[in-house]
Protein 1
Amino acid sequence: MTNRDEAVISPKFGNVPKSSARRRTGRIALAADGWRRWWPYYVMMAPGILFFLVFHYLPIWEARIAFEQVRIVPPNIWVGIKHFQVLFSSPVFWQVLANTLIISAMKMVFFLPVPIIVALLLNEVRGGSLRKFIQSAIYLPHFLSWVVIAGIFIAALSPTDGAVNNLMGMAGMAPRSFMTDTGAIRWVLVFTEIWRSAGWDSLLYLAAIIAIDQQLYDAAEIDGANRWQKIRHVTLPGIVPTIATLFILNAGMFLNADLNQVINLSNDVVRSKIDIVDTYVYRIGLQTGEYSLATAAGLFKAVLGTMMIVIAHFVSKRLTGKGVW
């Protein structure tokens, strides 16, 4: 050992070369300096990290009760796949699964293109003040709770004095009770989802559009392209990676038909048409106390969601060349 690497005594590591001790001390000093500089950001991140730990990562371990019989006094009794057998033999579960698939498919087909269209239209608005006003107006519904939104639409769709039926009456059409119409209630879910989230979701697409190299638009303009041709040949290809990524993420949440929305817009007349897996889990888990059966249903939904992500990844990879990995 050279004089430069003369040994020093560390309380944690014992005899270590002086150069190694200096490097370790330097790393500790850098970490402490980084903490002092960035601690406000770490504090801001803490609630989000805690939320995911408590509500997303801890339940992964607790999902084992899907294979156990929960007892008031531990330990629980291991029952294997008994709860899954009960679940799959229940016609009610298959009905709520079918409702979930239908509602989720309707939302994906009719909702997914809307934020893209909104972003494309916003990008074409040249007036700065007008653009800011439109953005504020379409972003606002995202910050309203489903309780407020449900109250707005229940009043607007009222068959007696609702604005929609008043307009239909002026057009010579008979009034219709949309909220108790089993044929219309799923479309109410789709429309309210679009009204609430399309503007906010367009932010990601708008950011992707802004990131496109302006030289591509200049080159297209030199070639004589009009606005529509620029959108078709420059803007849309430029946001394909964003569309593919969000499509895959939405596929992973395909079975999340929005518990809060369904609960607030549901009633006894139409419940059979919009009763979804999440409301089923809520009902048998929190209202009847069958925690193991509810966990089995939730775990089944999670496995299907994971499969949907993988399938969507390979489909997107095949069609656009873009995927999650």
Protein 2
Amino acid sequence: MKIALDPTMYTDLSLRELVEKAAKLGYEYIELSPREDFCPFYKYPRADRDRIQKLKRYLRDAGVKISSLLPLYHWAGPEEERRQAAVRNWKRAIEIAVELEVDLVNSEFSGTKYNPVVCEEKFIKSMDELIPIFEREGIHLNLQAHPYDFIETNKEAVDMIRALDKPWINLVYSTAHTFYYDDGTGDIEAMFDYAGDLLQHVLFADTFNHKAAGGLRYIVNPPGAQVTVHQHLNIGEGEVDFLTIFKKLKQMNFDGIATNSVFAWADRRDESSKDMLRKIKEGFSLE
């Protein structure tokens, strides 16, 4: 199993500083999430050959590896021009993964839950274009359902991955999205059982159940506004059942990627990152 740091709270650091920071915090792996000087959110990648080679050197020097590259683009539309741009971005991101000698990327389904049928059509169209490239380059893909995307639930994510029917496409489960993934009960065992061997990647962060208190855990004005709310907190600061998560993952002999995906505490990020590494290791009985 690989325990990785999502360095979203460290995007102000240079690539060299980021890699050195991860090593200092005790992480052997980085899940390279979007940053403006490499693969920004929704925009064409900024990394050229020189920057990629420098990053590889920084990683070697620090004894740190990249567990996966995380590109995020509007490949599920629903606007066709943006979908086409997303596919162009994806093609370059795959090239970057190859140059980094990283054989795994992970991402989200994207789109919008307010137009799910059209977004699914756009997603499949994008996959039709990209699957041959993934296969030619030997790059694996892990996908997660995400609040607001055209796929928000665990079951729909698993069903779509099964529909794509490629052994190199698997599931990311984000614990911070637990209460979007089912009917709000957060039934971890049922969701993990449904995913089975497709579950290859878990993002660890806590959150509150937004459906609790009669839907009034969070109050949005005006009522009914089209927004989604969740957190990425340290384990133990929300309402996710991590005892069951770790128990179930150990029963399943989980051997994929476990990523610290906390974003909330940039003002005390080192403390948070060290604490999350300790809690993930303890959860898997690794220390």
